[in-house]
Amino acid sequence: MHVAFCAAVLFFLMAPILVIVPLSFNAEPYFTFTEGMLRLDPEAWSLRWYREIATSDVWRSALVNSLVIGTAATALATFLGTLAALGLSSPNMPARRFLMGFLVSPLVTPVIISAAGMFFFYSRMGLGQTHLGLILAHAALGTPFVVITVTATLTAYNTTLNRAAASLGAGPLRTFTRVQLPLIAPGVLSGALFAFATSFDEVVVVLFLGGVEQNTIPRQMWAGIREEISPAILAVATFLIVFAAALLLTVGWLRRRAAGTG
Amino acid sequence: MPRGRNWRPQLRAAGLALPLVAFVGVTFVAPLATMFSRSVYDAVVADALPETLALLEGWDGESAPGEDVFAAAARELMEAQEERVIGQVAGRVNRVQGGMRSIVAVTGRRLAAAPDGSWRETFLGIDPAWGEAGTWHAVRTAGERYTSRHYLAAVDLRRLPDGSIARQDEDRRIYLRLFARTFLVSLSITGLCLLFGYPLAHFIAHAPPRRAGLLLALVLVPFWTSLLVRTTSWIVLLQGQGVINDILVALGLVSDDGRLALIYNMTGTFVAMTHVLLPFMVLPLYSVMRGIPRSHMDAAASLGAGPAQGFLRVYWPQTLPGVGAGSLLVFILAIGYYITPALVGGSTGQLISNMVAYHMQTSLNWGLASALGAIILACVIGLYLLYERLAGTEGVRVA
Predict the structure, then answer these.
(1) pLDDT band for position B258 (cuts 50, 70, 90)
(2) Among all residues of chain A, which has the CA nearest to that of B224?
(3) Which of B196, B230, B399 sits opposite A251 (nearest CB)?
(4) pTM: predicted TM-score of the whole model, two decimal places
(5) Which of A17, A220, B99, B207 would you call most buried, defined as having the most Cβ atoms within 10 angstroms of its Cβ?
(6) Which of B34, B232, B376 has its CB closest to that of A113?
(7) pLDDT, tens only, B142-170
(8) A52 touches B at CB < 8 Å
(9) For residue B343, what are the contacts with CB-CB under 8 A and spacing of at least 6?
């Protein structure tokens, strides 16, 4: 009984994701299984939609935009977030609880409200419809993940190592880069992956802040769902599912590493 | 020198956090703050009609104002027409009193340099509404720089000309109902997630390690998969010509022209949101349940408790922190949800966040959008503080 119920819930979780994959090989422009597909007729299956996205300029530029914005936002978020996490983990940090709340606010705020606020402010600063504006906005949305994961990793970090390094003559910077950073690297990396995944899947801020030049993959999918619905977005979706699985495996691997060294 | 504390470590810690605090302050908190200032501050009408509004201060409010007010209004409306802000002014006054948009716009267009008789007669010649006190009340209200009218509008209230507050007309009451709907939907989705998530989390938490890892992956893959992908999946499954309807037709359960409307309505919003939010319930529950040793239940059994009693008295109480954290997390996320209802909710499955987007992008009533946003954010922050007490700032670790 219990097992059957859990199987049903897991089916509910996974089936919608798995159904996309075979449908993306549909030879016809439909969103459902054709009779030919059910008969496993090879004619009914094709790479048509994959060819379409591979040769489409729109999707290619969307991918480039997503990668550029995601990478830059992640780099910024990871650098600032790691620094802040180091400060927040120090027992000497004043107003720690308040600052933590302040720094995770982008995570808690509903994204439509963030996007609306950014729309006014960024346009007035001349950052509307620019890559830089989106990079800053996505970095802001990604920093809470870095702060949270790195702070969590640092609770397991043994600070006597810092004193040991200092006693051996290393300055603070050297201690950080040679001793502390390698040990907390799994936490930093998984925070960075979270930040990247956030940017890579973010659509609302892009809709409000971005122009045609800032078309990203989620924005193109949004347009695809709302307007010219074509199975090409199922091919993109399949690609994103594979990407999600790869991210998941990487984060799991990093977590095991962190557990091993922590 | 006083023997004070040594402040250097504090300064160093604060110095490390400072860049991010400044960054989040400028790129995130300042935008929100300027947006919320819009919900109480609006200078469009005040800047366009300064003299008219100043003269209206001395007006008795009972009948149409004197010739001096009409003269000032004529000059300033013509100026507004010239500077092309008349449309904005008309829109603002229209929000206070329906129907004013065209009156103000037409007046701005038809006023000429010299009056036709008196300015008063000229105005009344363009539209007799200018002879009514209500019209000038609307202008005066729209001219307030600092205003509570967006917040009043956001909870279906309005200010009457005499300054008292009344409920919006029956057919214009939409927001309270929408807030209530959002609240109920979020609560139901939280309940559903708990119903589905609790047994699943329990099953995974107490499965043998290898199998547990595999099962957990089945929860994490959807969690990591793009939201738009998951929403697309539900469109594929639920639409009229979609997979589920096809199966039902093939099984003969529904006729081909009686296909069920499973999407672009509240059903679609419900199903897709439950699917998206379920992992947020399972993960905190799982991390709490994993910490409960099996021996507790064995001990309960050995003391004579049946499975039901053992569960209710021993197991369930220990999972309450996870239940609380998971439920609050799902509820917080549901209350501010935008993307999924916008894509699969049709016209009946919209939530309050979609109204913020509507006023941002379509009606361009930014003051009201900001007020609605501020109310949602206040709810979310309140719930988050509760969540933080339950789960700590690091949260129950997700993924």
Answers:
(1) confident
(2) A244
(3) B399
(4) 0.89
(5) A220
(6) B376
(7) 999 998 889 999 999 988 777 788 898 88
(8) no
(9) A222, A225, A226, B231, B235
